[in-house]
Write a structure and sequence with these properties.
Blueprint: E1 18-24, H1 32-44, E2 51-54, E3 60-66
Antiparallel strand pairs: 1-3, 2-3
């Protein structure tokens, strides 16, 4: 993957100590503010978010957090 992304000056790294959280359901990601609300809840709980995504299919919101905060 790193070789394929050389033209984009991408930094590719792997981390095994992460968990993926997903809010899944029809229309879950329909409103742009929904991901912000989800990230706000995680922030208020003191959970650092390493990455997030709002899928274009409007079915899922995804956040990546450290494994230590996933339980």
């Amino acid at each position: 993957i790193a070789e394929a992304l050389e033209d984009f000056e991408a930094d590719v790294r792997c981390n095994e100590n992460v968990a993926v959280l997903a809010a899944v359901g029809e229309g879950a990601a329909a409103a742009p503010a929904t991901l912000g609300r989800m990230l706000g809840v995680l922030d208020r709980a003191g959970i650092p978010v390493l990455a997030s995504s709002q899928q274009s299919s409007n079915v899922a919101l995804v956040a990546v957090v450290p494994t230590a905060h996933a339980e």
